Amino acid sequence: MKKQSQKKNAQQFFSSHDIGLVAFLLSKKFELIDLDKTLKSKVLFILKRDDDIDNAIKNYWNFKSSVDAQTYFNQLKRLKNQIFSSN
Fold this sequence. Notes:
By secondary structure, the protein is α+β, with helices and mostly antiparallel strands. It has one domain (about 1-85). About 50% of the residues lie in helices and about 15% in strands. The chain has helices at about 1-10, 20-25, 55-60, 70-85; strands at about 15, 30-35, 45-50. Helix 2 crosses helix 4 (about 70-85). The chain is globular, with a radius of gyration of 14 Å.
């Protein structure tokens, strides 16, 4: 049953520890759902899975996409603020 639940979550959500990738996806208007801070050394960013997210990720890793620099910087700053907030 646990495997089925994990598969369903993978269909609904995308998660990553990579702050650069997540800042890029937020700049592309994908939705951040939550941050998992259970591990002290890493934060897991959880985004809502969208039809286009896999293609956006592929383009990011293949250097075939770009975003506005100021938007990216602001998203990166936003993520860092959320990481280091007390909650």
